[in-house]
Specification:
This protein has 299 residues and is mostly beta strands. Helix content is 3%, strand content 44%. The protein is built from one helix and 19 strands. Strands 1, 2, 3, 4, 7, 8, 9 and 10 form an eight-stranded antiparallel sheet that branches. Strands 13-14-19-18-16 form a five-stranded mixed sheet, with no helix packed on it.
Length: 299
């Protein structure tokens, strides 16, 4: 294999949690930039005091037969995955996450200060979480890309020790043990690692998904959109919508003319007024021309 220095990743990590819900919380798309806003439902646990560690381990069954002194086959018989870190921000909410308890916040009044509380004990149930981790790296071209890891199902494990000392922060240990998501295919049931390798390529799509003439859809036939309007209609507003939202569409009164917007004057009753639409794809080099024929009914 070639030696690629940028494949040596040194990164801190952000840790995200989301409830296991229906419908499922969306994963961030590979196109989401590093430090971008994750989809609704994800909670960033904030600063951490120690590296975020993923541990994956499995047990092996070695199969021996009488005809060999060595095993002739090995199979995994059990597998486990866990994520560990130490949360830096010492809050009731974070304690509730790490120790599967409950937290409450009481607002200040004229007689009582605002305060928060955490409590735990007496509940055998453990909340289910979807877990996400995000780091980053630079490729050889100095592009800044995300590295992400997802545990499909996890519960907190082992509780933890809270330590209050004069010479270090009072961190909250967090350990999350994975559960198998049996709804996923084999070899995909515990976790997924994802590293973006290159920027998205620019789209070459310069097609239109549709054209409206004063709010009504125009019919397409061989690159010509046609719309019929009533005799009393003296103006029309042309709106062209590219199939891909990274393309641009410009409506003009002449071929390759200056763009126009808003209501445009139509010809006399019984005539056809022609407009032109120039669509430029995201790559800047693919261009398609369309014609819009607005037919005004006769008197």
């Amino acid at each position: 294999m070639p030696q690629v220095p940028s494949d040596i990743i040194v990164t801190g990590a952000r840790v995200f949690l989301a409830p296991v819900a229906s419908p499922a919380i969306a994963l961030p798309l590979p196109s989401l930039a590093v430090d971008g806003v994750w989809p609704a439902g994800w909670l960033d646990i904030g600063f951490t005091l120690e590296p975020t560690k993923l541990t994956y381990k499995f047990d092996i069954l070695e199969i021996f037969v009488e005809q060999s002194f060595s095993p002739i086959r090995r199979r995994r018989t059990k597998e486990e995955a866990a994520i560990e870190t130490v949360i830096a921000e010492h809050s009731a909410g974070n304690l509730a996450i790490a120790m599967a308890g409950i937290s409450t916040v009481t607002a200040a009044t004229s007689t009582v200060p605002g305060y928060e509380e955490f409590s735990v004990g007496g509940d055998p149930n453990l909340p289910l979480y979807l877990v996400g981790i995000e780091g980053s790296y630079n490729d050889e071209a100095e592009n800044f890309f995300p590295v992400r890891l997802f545990l499909w199902l996890a519960t907190v494990a082992d509780g933890g020790t809270l330590e209050y000392a004069k010479d270090k922060p009072a961190g909250i240990p967090l350990k999350l043990n994975a559960l198998a998501d049996a709804t996923k295919p084999r070899k995909q049931q515990l976790f997924k690692f994802q590293r973006v390798l290159s920027p998205a390529t620019a789209s070459s799509d310069a097609t239109l998904s549709g054209v409206t003439v004063t709010g009504a859809s125009a019919a397409l036939l061989e690159s010509v959109f046609t719309a019929n309007v009533l005799t009393g209609t003296t103006t029309a507003t042309i709106v062209a919508t590219p199939t891909v939202n990274t393309a641009t569409a410009v409506v003009s009164l002449t071929l390759n003319g200056a763009g126009v917007t808003g209501a445009q004057t139509l010809g006399a009753a019984g005539t056809t007024t022609t407009f032109y639409v120039k669509v430029t794809a995201q790559n800047g080099s693919t261009v398609l021309q369309y014609t819009v024929a607005v037919i005004r009914a006769g008197a």
